[in-house]
From TrEMBL:
Organism expressing this protein natively: Thermobacillus composti (strain DSM 18247 / JCM 13945 / KWC4)
One Pfam family it belongs to: SBP_bac_1
Superkingdom of origin organism: Bacteria
Gene3D superfamilies: Periplasmic binding protein-like II
Keywords: Cell membrane, Lipoprotein, Membrane, Palmitate, Signal, Sugar transport, Transport
Protein name per the record: ABC-type sugar transport system, periplasmic component
Position of the signal peptide: 1-23
InterPro entries the record matches: Bact_solute-bd_prot1, SBP
Length: 431
């Protein structure tokens, strides 16, 4: 019985094998058709490896990289990382000059001139995904109306204020003008509350926002004119520095002894309720809450002399640029396009903690930071001189720092401070 049943089965199996072999032989022949499976293999994109030098480490970028590879399995990454800012800039510059730069790299305020002027970055202006980017984010990554980097993030700094201390001093509403801000400071002082700390260690949040509120609201192109030789520091900064010196230094709201404070000391004093206002940004929030979970605080802008002219200190996030010499232009553009999608934005936010400023995306923002996000970042009312200045950022920044501290110690006047800034600019231009 077993032999009789087995024999027909063997015949059927042999016939099937012959048919299969014939079919395979036909597929391999020059005149034969191709099977559906082999067509897929022929049409499948070739494997590509994109090199990237990242500002964020691999753990922070992992959600984005994994999401992209799931969508484009034929693309893998040769990932490398250098910490910002100095180390990254130096490493990238060496790679660019030795023609070993990656397909994708970071363009920032500190290296934009060298990258754009050197022709190292691809022009992204007309790419469809650039519509996701805020117009206010583009100037930092642009030259002559063309944009060379894509950024989907930004940051803003302002003054954190202690709501309980404001209430204790009888302050019922936030200032709408600079004069009202000074009145609030004096009112806090009269109530025995330290109004404000500022370390005066840089072109501070206060100075930057004051310039935005009083100068940029009237002349948004001031810095462009400054570096075109059409205006001077004296014309833009004299009034701002006089306001700061006469109202905050001369009234002893800010005092020279603050210059030696550390950032940790300032935030600790604020968290413990020993000072009503401190300059800060989103990076300070977790520290404030960890020190004092019961504190009630929020961020506010610096108001200008005219009502409604409020500004924050801040800047766009660094941009992703594509090497103009890349051999994988299509794949590199796919990566930047992916960063602009809701999925890519969510993964970038999840991994890096960056504040997303893209059109059509709602980012996770701490309630205390909402004013800076809505009225500063998304409204484009942020200013950071080192981003806006076209050249000599570090030399001018250092000169500014010296001038601020000398004014705080009554060594020089605001008029002398801007004279020194104009002198430094001319000195650098003539080198």
């Amino acid at each position: 019985m077993i032999k009789r049943l087995t024999w027909p089965l063997m015949v059927i199996l042999c016939a099937a094998l012959v048919l299969t072999a014939c079919g395979q032989s036909g597929n391999k022949g020059t005149n034969g058709g191709t099977s559906g499976g082999e067509s897929k293999d022929a049409d499948a994109p070739k494997p590509v490896t994109l090199s990237i030098l990242s500002w964020n480490n691999e753990q922070e970028m992992k959600p984005v990289l994994d999401g992209f590879k799931a969508k484009y399995p034929h693309i893998s990454f040769d990932f490398s990382f250098a910490p910002p800012v100095t180390d990254y800039i130096a490493k990238l510059q060496t790679m660019l000059l030795s023609d070993t730069a990656p397909d994708i790299f970071i363009i920032a305020a500190e290296n934009r001139n060298e990258i754009i002027d050197g022709g190292f970055a691809m022009d992204l202006t007309d790419q469809p995904f650039m519509s996701v980017m805020l117009d206010s984010n583009k100037p930092m990554l642009s030259k002559n109306g063309r944009t060379y980097g894509f950024t989907q993030t930004g940051w803003a700094g302002g003054l954190f204020y202690n709501k309980q201390l404001f209430e204790q001093a009888g302050i019922e509403k936030l200032p709408e003008t600079w004069d009202e801000f000074v009145e609030i400071c004096l009112k806090l002082k009269e109530a025995g509350i330290r109004p404000l700390y500022d370390r005066m260690h840089d072109i501070t949040i206060i100075h930057s926002a004051m310039f935005g509120a009083n100068v940029l609201t009237k002349d948004p192109d001031f810095d462009e004119k400054l570096f075109n030789g059409e205006t001077t520091f004296a014309e833009g900064w004299t009034e701002v520095l006089k306001m700061w010196k006469e109202d905050l230094i001369d009234n002893e709201i800010l005092t020279p002894d603050m210059i030696g404070l550390t950032s940790e000391q300032v935030m600790n004093e604020f968290s413990l309720g020993n000072v009503a206002m401190v300059p800060g940004g989103p990076w300070n929030i977790s520290t404030i809450e960890a020190t004092n979970p019961d504190i009630e605080f929020e961020i506010m802008p610096i108001p200008g002399k005219e009502p409604g002219n409020k500004y924050y200190n801040g800047a766009p996030g660094v941009g992703f640029a594509i090497n103009s010499k890349t051999k994988h232009k299509e794949e590199a553009l796919l990566f930047l396009e992916y960063l602009s999608t809701e999925e890519g934005l969510r993964q970038f936010e999840e991994g890096t903690g960056g504040i997303i400023t893209a059109h059509g995306y709602t980012t996770n923002v701490h309630p205390a930071y909402l004013p800076a996000y809505n009225d500063g970042l998304m409204a484009g009312r942020i200013y950071l001189p080192m981003v806006s200045w076209a050249r000599h950022q570090e030399a001018l920044r250092n000169q500014f720092l010296i001038a601020i501290q000398d004014m705080a110690m009554n060594k020089i006047t605001p008029e002398e401070a801007v004279e020194l800034l104009d002198k430094k600019l001319q000195e650098m231009e003539n080198k």
